[in-house]
Amino acid sequence: MQRRALTLTLSGATVALLTASAFLIPTPYAEMSPGPTYDTLGSYSTESGQPEKPVIAITGTDTFKHDKGGQLRMVTVEVSRADYHPNSVEVLSGWLSDDKIVVPRTVIYPEGQTAEQATQQNTALFDDSEDQAITAALAAKNIKPVKTEVVVDSVTAGSPADGKLQPKDVITAVDGTALAKPDDVHTLIQKHKPGETVALTITRDGKQQDVSIVTAQSHDTGPSRALVGFVPRTQNVFPFDVKIQLDNVGGPSAGMMFALGIIDELSQEDITGGLKIAGTGTIDADGKVGPIGGVQMKTLAAKRDNASVFLTPADNCADAVKNAPSGMKLVKVTTLQSALDALNTLRAGGTPTLCG
């Protein structure tokens, strides 16, 4: 009898310990859930009480506003904070939930990358996506860039460029030599030996200035060379100005919806036909639409905000169909032109190619 009592006591202690562990021990997972959506044809405010600003601002050419009430909503996914480590109970709850996805933590925060670095990377991807969207949209309107310039995409923390260069700085010359093509920035910097000073002429917020940077020595497996510590990218310059003004959003997945918003503002015809349309997808300068992550959460966000149509990258269709909200048309798209064709079909009362 005493032995049985002891066994029950030990078993009860084990259960209690396991239960406590389920609530206390963090797991290597993160959560994704439906995030806010933004009408690329509308305006938004980052803070309560602050004046709104248009998501897309086009100046220097004629634009058109339409009054049919149509929307082109880009969708987002909320991700758990970098310092949030769900316990086993929270992970199980997420797996059973219809409006959350539990993923390995490294999917959102790659190993060896800080939360700040992840944010910087997503911001850089967003900036590049803007340029690709603008280029693709204007190409669809037969408008070509007048030139291509070099901009700072990101700055490496602790490098010689840290504190001297900023993302979006436009580099116009190196050591007084104007850049004839984007690759010139690397060629001209590599003329220096480590420890020498390189002079960059940049434009920041519309003002030109000179920045001197003492180069460091590279430490990778290649030949020793002068290191400045920034990643350049190119951006196209067009006959008029197009700005995408959306803060606190990162990643490349809004590219297609930005492109459609730009086309709508440059078109006399309302390409939405008065429908509330949501969608997602990366885009390149040639108008090819690519897949994104978290599509099931994005369709839920679209449904929550009253969209009736969801423009879906073809490679995401299978996942989107698995959790498709009732009453929403999942339209398959492969290119910017296929998205425009689908909108034409919808305006005419027809049914475009759907997922599934």
TrEMBL record:
Name under which the protein is recorded: endopeptidase La
The record's keywords, sorted A to Z, are:
Hydrolase, Protease, Serine protease, Signal
Extract the Pfam families matched here.
Lon_C (PF05362), PDZ_2 (PF13180)
Query: What is the E.C. number?
Result: 3.4.21.53
Which residues does UniProt assign to the signal peptide?
1-30
Query: Where does the source fall among the domains of life?
Result: Bacteria
The UniProt record lists the PDZ domain at 122-206
User: Any idea which residues are catalytic in this one?
Assistant: S253, K298
Presence of the UniProt keyword Protein biosynthesis in the record: no
Write out the similarity annotation: Belongs to the peptidase S16 family.
> Has the keyword Hydrolase been applied to this entry?
yes
SMART domains, per the entry: PDZ (SM00228)
TM annotation in the entry: none
| Reactions performed catalytically | Hydrolysis of proteins in presence of ATP
Supply the source organism for this entry: Catenulispora yoronensis
Q: Please state every residue range assigned to the domain named Lon proteolytic.
A: 248-346
- EC main group: hydrolase
PANTHER family with a match to the protein in the record: ATP DEPENDENT LON PROTEASE FAMILY MEMBER
